[in-house]
Specification:
The protein is of the alpha/beta class. Helix content is 42%, strand content 17%. It folds into 2 domains: 2-179, NAD(P)-binding Rossmann-like Domain (Rossmann fold), CATH 3.40.50; 184-335, N-(1-d-carboxylethyl)-l-norvaline Dehydrogenase, domain 2. An 8-stranded mixed β-sheet has the order 5-2-1-6-7-8-11-12, sandwiched between helices. A 4-stranded mixed β-sheet has the order 4-3-10-9, with helices on one face. The N and C termini lie far apart (55 Å).
Length: 338
């Protein structure tokens, strides 16, 4: 083993892909997850990429927070609703010098961890790409996680990130320090407004985004969010070749033109789906409160309305209870009043 001792608290798709990528480069990594997930990982972990190539590893596995004892870097990758619980669980086991990094969706998870871990340095970070489960070979019992879209990691520009930057360099895992992480997180949230639309469409991301009707739904949700952020004077970082405020216009172009332009913005595996679709498929609570819900909460603080995002919250809540999650583009536009 080389480099830092790393623990990943939350052995879901993102945690397993990042942790597996680090472990495959020979680094000391422990994945901490629920017993069912850890049992599945017992047959080995494979990391694949839409750009090609597969790496295999056997990281240390744990089902209890004490799996993070002795770690110098702890990556938190649980769902947003579990952040406070994760912070409380880690508080009693972390080494004094451990650095905690929140690789989670949403806006306030790093602050939630800071409140639970006041004696530790907590950094905000962002994962721009989509990770899905995949079976490399028929009948294989090896658990495979597949990076299905492009993008590089971002993290607070802070001296405490040095060990993780070095670990990522060894793993050939691109990561960019940023001094504007709140703006980066809002930009990611605006992009992630598509999670709900994809989950409600029931089709792969690429198929959904190639349909102008679904893109109109996303454009409306993004435009509403961006207008509120402008009123609140919240900066929104540019993470792709297209500035955030241009994105709704790009989404509205004809399908043939969108397919041509989208290749310059983000590459997507044909089989990729959103994490919210995965949650609905697995009958788990979604992160809708931390995506569209954040937009609705911002509107409330500004004494304004966010009807498109509020309706998407309602539709996803209905889907969580077993309701419709196979909207056509025409049906979803109608439901949103477009």
């Amino acid at each position: 083993m080389v480099g830092a001792v790393i623990a990943v608290f939350g052995a879901g798709a993102i945690g397993c892909w990042i942790g597996g990528k680090l472990a495959a480069s020979g680094q000391d990594v422990t994945l901490i997850g629920r017993p069912r997930i850890v049992l599945e990982l017992g047959n080995g972990l494979a990391i694949s990429d839409f750009e090609g190539g597969v790496a295999r590893c056997r990281p240390t596995l744990a089902t209890e927070p004490r799996g993070a004892e002795g770690a110098s870097i702890v990556l938190v990758t649980v769902k947003s609703a579990q952040t406070a619980e994760a912070g409380a669980a880690l508080a009693g086991v972390l080494a004094r010098d451990a650095v905690v990094v929140s690789f989670q969706n949403g806006i306030g998870n790093a602050d939630t961890l800071r409140a639970a871990l006041p004696n530790h340095r907590v950094l905000a970070a962002m994962v721009p790409f989509n990770v899905t489960r995949k079976q490399l070979e028929p009948g294989s019992t090896e658990r495979t996680f597949h990076r299905a879209s492009s993008g590089i990691l971002r993290i607070d520009d802070d001296p405490a990130n040095a060990a993780l930057l070095a670990a990522c360099a060894r793993a050939q895992l691109p990561i960019e320090p940023r001094a504007d992480m709140p703006a980066v997180q809002w930009a990611k949230l605006v992009m992630n407004l598509n999670n709900a639309i994809n989950a409600l469409s029931g089709v792969p991301l690429k198929t959904e985004l190639e349909d102008r009707g679904f893109r109109r739904c996303l454009a409306a949700a993004q435009r509403e969010a961006l207008e509120l952020l402008a009123v609140a004077a919240h900066p929104v970082a540019k993470l792709t070749a297209i500035p955030p405020r241009w994105m709704p216009r790009l989404l509205g172009v004809p399908d043939w033109l969108f397919r041509r332009l989208a290749k310059k913005v983000v590459a997507i595996d044909p089989h990729a789906r959103s994490s919210m679709w995965d949650d609905l498929e697995g009958k788990r609570p979604t992160e809708i409160d931390y995506l569209q819900g954040e937009v609705v909460a911002l509107a409330t603080r500004l004494h304004r309305a966010a009807p498109i995002n509020a309706k998407l919250v309602e539709l996803v809540r209905t889907a969580e209870g077993g309701g419709k999650r196979d909207f056509t583009a025409v049906e979803l536009q109608a439901a949103l009043g477009l």
